[in-house]
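Researcher: Here's the sequence for the chain we discussed earlier.
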Amino acid sequence: MDSARARVKELRRWLEKANYQYYVLDDPEASDAEYDQKFRELQQLEQQFPELQSLSSPSHRVGIASDAAFTSVTHGIPMLSLNNAFETDEVEAFVARIVGKLDQTDPLFAVEPKFDGLAISLRYDHGELTVGATRGDGTTGEDVTANLRTIVSIPLRLQGEGWPQVLEVRGEVVMPLQGFHAYNERMRASGGKLLVNPRNGAAGSLRQLDPRITATRPLQFMAYGIGLWSEDVAPPTSHHGGLEQLAAWGFSVTDWARTTRGVSGLLEYFRQLGAERDRLPFDIDGAVYKLDRLRDQQEMGFVARAPRWAIAHKFPAQERGTTLLAIDVQIGRTGIVTPVARLDPVFVGGVTVSNVTLHNEDQIRRLDVRVGDRVIVRRAGDVIPEIVKAVAPEDGERQAPWQMPSNCPACNSELVREEGEAAWRCSGEWVCPAQRVESLIHFASRRAMDIEGLGDRVVEALVRHGIVSHVADLYRLTLNDLLAMKAAEDAAGRTDETAAALTARSGKPSSKWAENILQAIDQSRSPALERLLFGLGIRHVGESTGKVLARQLGTLDRVQRAPWPILKAIPDIGGEVARAIVHFMEQPGNREQMQALLDAGVTPLERTEVPAEWRARLNWADLLVQLEIPKLTALRAKQLADEYPDPHAFAAAALGGFEGSALPTDTLQSLRDWMTDARNSSLLQHVIAFRAELLQAAPANDSADNLRYAGKTMVLTGTLQSLTRDAAKQALELLGAKVAGSVSARTDVVIAGEAAGSKLDKALALGIEVWDEARLLKELDE
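Model: Thanks. This is the structure I predict for it:
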């Protein structure tokens, strides 16, 4: 039971993450096959151990809650998902359950393709489209009506007559393959962003905040069912009859919607559909079987997340053979080395595949894949292609096993593999050109330093022409630099998309785009400390870790100087992360670049105090444990701290070999051995000094009285010139203020930039204190 409970918890966490990536981010990392396997395992465990059932389990719901960027819509009838079948015996079991329940020997089924797009509901009141929503979590979805209205195949008003006062039509928004390829060709020609695949293209198009963007995408709505149907008109008696009625009212319904009987009919339809799959105008990943008569559907009913009267019969992953031409290595932003297989191009799963990641050296060894081998490539739906098998050439002569190169192909720095890790890394860090571009892009990204306009193409061009080599160079850019870069790109036929668009709009060369970039760079000079830490690209330091470091240590200088045992004592930062931070800060090139940033005027928003909880966390016995001295357990560390409560006395005793200590002989010998290493004795002194510094910076208590604006509610309005609204908000929050989005009688201060509107008017009417930008900067300086 304990093992099952732990596994159920692990599966639920994995599935929830996969749902979030798929439904909210439109950026799935898990393959359909992997998701299905884990989902089925969870279902089996919950059936085997009923006491582990929970309404919050992914097996009881569909997807994830809707994005807050869109208004929520509650579905009149839940939009449930379908259970999946992969094998013939699962289809047979599905039919057998129906036969047993309905006492019908040969039930009639409606059959249709399983579209690979985004499920949508359309509500029509008195024949006119009023609301269109995504499936969301099955109960509530996102209101994307404005975007759906741009799709020509969706009737804004129903055709014909005889429809009910309220009608909800359900179907799938898909991107036809011809339109998908044509769109990508246009983007490729203009240097725009390509769509990854039709399904993600459809989903991403509908989640655009600007319907004009959706209107440029080649989308089509395929109706596959009916939800709400008001009682003023008698509904159809069958599913297939309902589809015929929808077609009469102006909806696209697939030509492959048919009826058939029994297991043999279903399997024959599946065979025919599979044979024609590659010739269909849109992507599908299987067939859907539904009881045709609505009366039979009602009698079968539902399980928690799916109807008992329908099932999706999924196609197996597609596989093709080709030749492995070469294995190259790519260097990522953090220096990770990824082997990439270069293939003789092969068409599989709806796309032409010429490159496939091999992930790491261990994967290559496991597959025993070698250059010149015949390899089997698999791709299911929009899953990243993978090599699943290697076959020796017909002559039996195979090349020698592939070896990881010893040096980085971009900077010639040594490639290293840390103990216990699968990945190799380039040790060049900011010196490495391959990491340089990605590091700059990451540094300028919205969630890091938020330098608007400094996108991938601009950064690549700046590096390509030698204008920018390191992050500090961004703060020395001039208008002439940017214009020279654009001129060089023009000469090479690689005009930056943004600059080209602005030039075309004015009809003459313009420098406005460059001025906007310089302004954005200037506004980023006072970032919140956590943004700067995240932007530096320190290994293992994401947004959340950056926030933890900023809150716990307060200043960049402390983060740079903190010894790893102190960092390890911070909640949510373990030994691996602590050592990665120290390693980054110890590299001479990194130190030089951080100093260059400060010299260029980048001044992060900091606070000199640290949280009062440090007083408990810096308990001397606990820190001794954090030092990871062999054989020094928590119990022995407590005993040692009791003997030497003053860290300086401990250090002095260490020099004397801890003579007179009551600790066991083996523990004392381990302490002596540890201290004989000069690096360890230096680390101990560093920890002792830094501990004293933190204790001095930590207030006696963690009350809000230590913060200048504790208990104050502030509102920002208008445009600030010296820093972004986001940076101002985080600075005020660091000082204890609550930054609200609207003005009320409880507001203490309104900070008004240029073009402040109704919020400023309301503040003046209520007699609320108003600061201009100069007053804000003065307060922050103090």
